[in-house]
Amino acid sequence: MERSYKAQKVIDRLGQKLNRQVVGSLVACVHCGNCTDSCHYVLANPDDPTYAPAWKGDRLRKIFKKHFDWTGRVVPWWVGAKSPETDADLEELKDIVFGKCTNCRRCTMNCPMGVDFATFNRLTRGLLVHVGIMPEGVAVVSKDQWELGNQMGVLKEDYIDTVEWMSDELVDEVGDDKAAIPIDKSDVEVMYTINPREAKYDPRTISDAAKIFWAAGESYTMPSEGWDMTNFGLFSGDDELGGTVSRRVYEKAQALRAKKVVISECGHGYRSTLCEGANWAQFDVDFVMESSVQTMLRYIKEGKIKVDKSLNISSYTYHDSCNFARSCGMTEEPRELLNLVVSDFREMYPNRAENYCCTGGGGAMSMTEYTPQRLKSARVKADQLKATGAKVVVTSCHNCVDGLTDLIKHYGLDMEVTQLVNLVANSLLVEKAAEVPEAEHAVSTTLAFAGRTILVVDDEADARRFIATVLEDNGATVLQAVDGDEALQMMRDKKPDLVTLDLSMPGKDGGRVFEEIRNDSELSGARVCIITGKPELRRLIYERPVREPEGYINKPIQEDVLVSNLRRILELTNKAA
Amino acid sequence: MTASHLVTLVPSLNDARQHSWGAFMCAENREKKVNGRTIRLLQHDITLLEGVDAFVFYAQHDLRLGSGWGNAIMSRGGPSIQKELDALGRIETCQVVVTGAGELKAKHILHAVGPRFQEANLEAKLKKTVSEVLAQADKAGLESLAIPPMGYGFYGVPLPMTAKVMVDTIKEHLESHKDSKLKDVVICLNDKREIAPFESRLSALN
Ligand code: SF4
Ligand code: SF4
């Protein structure tokens, strides 16, 4: 049988990509099995040998032996040399390198021979992406980042609207015009870069960071482009994407003559922008880069900001992101900072470089076809979290926030996830220029939903009632629907300004209802906020069978989160209209 | 958004001429005349261009707009574009279909399915796709057209190949189609690093 065109291209490409480090890793494995139990996939699937790092590594090793190593040419049967021959072989390889490994590098730590399996797992991903074989979510996200400059498809006007909106909110909150968030200001000390997840679904992290910069009197700016410090090239194995994305950040920092780039809390963003990007981009970086964790810690140590740890009253543990801790050695700064802003900190075991992956790493959150095996492997992390007895898990990574949130729902843990920036902002002691009276707050919140009609779709009467009450208290006219069909009908009849849609409903589930809304020419423009904790949400966000929802909120719903998220959606609609 | 951000966001081609931002490039090697018509380079968001009749979108076989520029077209242009595409069904590699541009500034979008991911005969297919784009532009009587770096980026066509095929094919078309109404062909680039290969190809034209 003749080898398929794509299979041949993969083999050719491997030849171009081999370097001493990779070859060293490929030939060094002595199959001692030391790494086996270090992998969370193995621990959750003890009877399935196909999850073992060495077994997974052998998939690439076989190709290498067959085509590039003399042993494979002389005694192929002895060393297990084997080529991929068909497109189906490549699909199988895809399910291993994308579906059975998060590139967390924990196995690397436990290999006496220094085999860095994650590196050649990434390399194999790159070989497949090169010929167009990848999970749908990886394709969607990569294309967004190539073309729109960020991996969540945030349009420039939406990004700027969001930053300006958070800026206005902050100025109102602290009563000082100087708290406004500058955009594209040049000759500043700091250019602050973020994860697009913040602009899209978690803007509070932006205003929290801005509040800290303001309190510290920092000269900073957010850039209008080159603001996404995440990099899907790290996950997809596409070095060219990696270089293109990091170059955008670097070029913008130079154009603004910023002395330093501060990277918000994101493990893979930090690793990509600070450690790998300059190499991918072949770029001469002439400015400093640091994590916002280091920035915040320095502000406190230098007395630029004052914090009161009694303002964070829960019990906290810390999850080390693989990229942040294991790959970049950032283990002590987050702990030092955390201990400055909370009093009840409980260490998780194992921790630091030995910590287990959140199971959402390596782009796993975007690969929804592997969700069941991802959540199964998350049992290891769930046990780790539970054993701490803490109510809140803190992490310095947006990817981990999503990975942990999903597994907390899945395993029914009574925990929340937060980031250091939120805790620092919450414990900040600031002298308010002018105290805004409570009454004024009430008025402005009331105005937020006044004149708005919001449709609440949820099968549970309690949830519906709760949301409806909050919205009505804030001036909205509320419509209620108990299932998808009723919701669609009401949307046609009443044309609400916004719909909150529960994803888990019996009968036609919320995901299907959402797709119907988007595919219906009359309803497709509707603003929809998904209410859920279900992993199905990830499919809507990453694979985007239809245009993604305007926002989402996790259950159980917190009142302030509900109000601020819905306000954001409506506020931005206002501006666009 | 404030006015100052809007300026960098949606400069018309005329505004952009005066703009210091660097988006518009009118240096010698970034603009060439062929038969009295212009081929030029611009660094801009292609879906926001003003002053062109149409722009090209590197489409998928099933004509779903999808992510990337497709996402921008959908969000900024409204639902009518996807609706038109749905009625057209599916197209093959090297084929091009034309739709309206909804609420976008351009009047039309040319949806072109080019080769992707190292597929066989990449260069020949790319050339055929670019030719078909220009043929469709003539058929629609367009005077100005913006084309992105076809196939470069997500679809993995090497940048030098994209630059060579595009510049050469556009030049050949403008030379050989005397009846073409096209006066202004804009090669609309996304990143600064994409400029150099196009510049050198353009300046090599005589
Ligand atoms: S520990 Fe290292 S040498 Fe041993 S099986 Fe794992 S990768 Fe191979
Ligand atoms: S990198 Fe992590 S997920 Fe992948 S095999 Fe090693 S331990 Fe398992």
Summarize this entry quickly.
With 577 residues, chain A is an alpha/beta fold.
Describe the structure.
The complex is a heterodimer of chains A (577) and B (206). Chain A folds into four domains: 5-134, Orthogonal Bundle (Fumarate Reductase Iron-sulfur Protein, Chain B, domain 2); 150-160 and 168-301, no CATH class; 309-427, Rossmann fold; 445-569, Response regulator (Rossmann fold, 3-Layer(aba) Sandwich). Helices cover 53% and strands 8% of the residues of chain A. Chain A contains 29 helices and twelve strands. In chain A, helix 1 crosses helix 9 (117-130), helix 11 crosses helix 13 and helix 13 packs across helix 23 (420-427). Chain A is globular and about 80 Å long. Chain A starts with a helix and ends with a helix. Classes of the chains: A alpha/beta (577), B alpha/beta (206). One iron/sulfur cluster binds at residues 38-39, 41, 53, 56, 101-107, 117-118, 357 of chain A.
Topology:
The complex is a heterodimer of chains A (577) and B (206).
Chain A lengths: L4 H13 L2 H9 L11 H5 L8 H16 L1 H5 L1 H4 L7 H11 L8 H4 L7 H14 L5 H13 L7 H19 L15 E4 L2 H5 L3 H13 L3 E2 L10 H5 L2 H17 L4 E4 L3 H15 L6 E4 H10 L14 E4 L2 H6 L4 H10 L29 H7 L1 H10 L3 E4 L2 H13 L5 E3 L1 H8 L10 H12 L3 E5 L3 H13 L3 E5 L2 H11 L3 E5 L7 H10 L8 E4 L4 H8 L7 E3 L5 H18 L1
Helix pairs in contact in A: 1-9, 4-9, 7-9, 11-13, 11-29, 13-23, 15-16, 17-19, 19-23, 26-27
Chain B lengths: L2 H7 L3 H6 L12 E4 L2 E7 L10 E5 L10 H9 L2 H9 L7 E5 L7 E5 L9 H18 L4 E4 L11 H18 L7 E6 L5 H10 L2
Parallel strand pairs in B: 2-7, 3-5, 3-6, 6-7
Antiparallel strand pairs in B: 1-2, 4-5
Helix pairs in contact in B: 5-6, 6-7
Bound molecules: iron/sulfur cluster (SF4) (2 copies).
